[in-house]
Amino acid sequence: MARNNSPQLHIFPTPAEGLNHLADFFVELAARATQAHGRFSVALSGGSSPKKLYELLASEKYRSQVAWEKVFFFFGDERYVPHTDADSNYRMAREAMLEPLEIATNQVFAVDTALPPAEAAQQYTQAIEQFFGQGEARFDLVLLGLGDNSHTASLFPHTSVLHDATVGAREVFVEEKQAYRITLTAPLLNLAQTTVFLVYGADKAAAVQHILTDEENIEEFPAQLIAPVSGELHWFMDEAAASRLPPDNR
Question: How far is CA 63 from CA 73, 100, 131, 157, 176, in A?
Fold first, then answer.
């Protein structure tokens, strides 16, 4: 059975086509949000696929299409490494998009990985709560990737955070990485106005199949947890990533 509240699938012949359409979608969402409430809040994903999107958004084609001074950036998860580390999601986003676009520092909310993991998660939760004030912590856009083990953000298989019912950020020790991560919880991610998975490559085809067509098993397939409460869910994929989906799911 299909999960995830009837996701809208956007399948393209090549990753490049998918990235261009997603960049256009980003521009559209940014305009809609800033017109509605004066700002556009985004939770970014790490990984190589989003990096290409960020570089595209910072390119000459797109940089003039968004009111960047009204965009506020958060992170769906962060590796517990210094901001200068090559594995840092913050560093990747900064180099690929934030610095080229000259985004002001007060528009970027990075996880403070100089703090102990639990304290870093608590502080990040507070930063999110302060940003949204008395209202619901509802990002305008959450960008997500998908690991070949069906994880998303840092919601990894067989970790305690999969059952965390709180709305906020949590630290999680990922055994397979032998490292801590800080991740937004599924209940917080599911409040988003719009959620987008960006997935491409044949190595992700099995995970895509598990998430979109298998029976619910969040311990094995954590990305099944992403089921927006009232927002839209979109998947931007290339043909290779979608290759194992049955025709009636495409």
Answer: 16, 9, 25, 37, 38
Task: Provide long-range contacts, Cβ within 8 A and 24+ apart, for 65-69.
Answer: 65/27, 66/26, 66/27, 66/30, 66/31, 66/40, 67/30, 67/31, 67/34, 67/40, 68/101, 68/102, 68/103, 69/104, 69/107
pLDDT tens figures, 8-36: 999 999 999 999 999 999 999 999 999 99
**Structure-block tokens of residue 158:** 């067989």
pLDDT in tens, 57-86: 999 999 999 999 999 999 999 999 999 999
User: Looking at residue 147, which CATH number applies to its domain?
Assistant: 3.40.50.1360
Residue 6 lies in a domain: no
Domain count for the chain: 1
Neighbours of 94 (CB within 10 A): 18
Q: Is the whole model's pTM more than 0.90, yes or no?
A: yes
Q: Which domain holds residue 126?
A: 25-243
Sheet containing 179-184, strands listed edge to edge, beginning at the edge strand earlier in sequence: 77-79, 179-184, 169-174
Spell out the alpha helix ranges (H) of the chain. Answer: 15-37, 48-57, 60-63, 89-93, 117-132, 186-189, 205-213
- Establish if 15 belongs to a structural domain: no
DSSP secondary structure letters along 9-34? EEEESSHHHHHHHHHHHHHHHHHHHH
Asked whether residue 18 is domain-assigned, the answer is no
Q: Is residue 209 part of a domain?
A: yes
